[in-house]
Amino acid sequence: MINMLNLIRKEVPTLSVEDSVPKAINLMHTHSIKQIPVVDLDNKYGGMIYYKDFININFQSTSKIKHFLSNDAHILKLTDDLQLCINYIINTGKTGLPVVDNKKFVGLVIDKDLVLNVELDNLKVNDIMSSPIVIDENSTLDNALSLMRKNNVSRLPVVNNNHFTIGVISLLDILKIFSIHNEKGSPGSVLVKDLVRTGLTIESGSIIKNNLDKFKNSDELIVVSNNKPVGIITSKDILETSLPKKTDSIIYTANFDDEGIRNEIIQKMEKFVKKTEGILNDTQSVVIYFEKHKSLCSIRTRLITKTQVIHTHSDDYDPLRAFKSVLEKLERQITELHSKKVENKFKDKNYSADEEI
């Protein structure tokens, strides 16, 4: 069994409640982390600051983090094992969780560190990747941020005029620029190519376990074919493969605070999965993530089959309306995928007939 102590990052930056938002963003960017614990002078744990808390606000250089402090993160104990850590990361929808002992902050457990300890057998990148939402290098940061919000993603592969992959841009990269320029006018007109960073790529068809070390220095892997992006994999995508097999349901949910809404959504998804049994190739699991930005609800779903991952999301002020939209989008995607599959089979059949002739 893996020792919990080996999973904890102890040398991590911390903040006090009086620190500023720009300071928090700068520390996250410098240390390549998406969350920072808040402690007092005695190292007593007081909550977490997550980078996504800043996406929909207009903060100033004097804005204090105490107004964005989150206490809803699950607190890990030194006795928690690897599987428990993974379960909590998935179920809370967070990228990292604090470890606290006797009310004192000990360190962080982060998703991309857990990935290095997951058993994956010969799973290929194509089995769990999501279709990439890409952006052209000549687009502006405003366009990039809008695209991220629209699709509820936190990074975009960047392509040139030939649609070749040249790098990646993340929400944290954009927040860093906005925090620097927030008193000098909007930096939204800055071009993506001026901010793009080198992204780590992996060839389509590759075995994931042979490439896990890449997550030591990256939050994502861009799946490419002929240098063109065909998919994207995050550490959380990999962790989803190690969720414990349930006997009662294949539906997993994360971060729901209303048990009634959560149960209703699970029931609706179970009916949907049953409805699509004849079309999809063996649905193995469905993970439904819930997020709330002020009064706006966001629901993101990953439907995982033996051969593909179907990802969609929707926003609404009513979570049930948002989920209804998610199901409608899923149904359209599944129908399109099934139509393409039938079309390809028809082409292959005709091709074989032509060869015989």
Which structural traits does this protein have?
357 residues, alpha/beta, CBS-domain, Double Stranded RNA Binding Domain, 3 domains, globular
Tell me the fraction of residues in β-strands, as a range: 15-25%
- Integer tally of domains: 3
Please state how the strands of the largest beta sheet are arranged side by side: 11-12-13-14
Instruction: Count the beta strands.
Output: 14
How does the helix and strand content classify structurally? alpha/beta
Bin the helical content: 25-40%
CATH topology of the largest domain: CBS-domain
Give Rg in angstroms: 21 Å
CATH class of the largest domain: Alpha Beta
- Outline: globular
Give a written overview of the molecule.
The protein is 32% helix and 24% strand. It is α/β, with parallel strands linked by helices and 357 residues long. The protein folds into 3 domains: 4-117, CBS-domain, CATH 3.10.580; 125-240, CBS-domain (Roll), CATH 3.10.580; 251-345, Double Stranded RNA Binding Domain (2-Layer Sandwich). The strands form 5 sheets. Strands 11-12-13-14 form a 4-stranded mixed beta sheet. Helix 1 packs across helix 6 (171-181) and helix 8 (259-275) packs parallel to helix 9 (319-356). The longest helix is centred in the C-terminal third of the chain and has 38 residues, at 319-356. It starts with 20 loop residues before the first helix and ends with a helix. The model has no long low-confidence stretch (mean pLDDT 85).
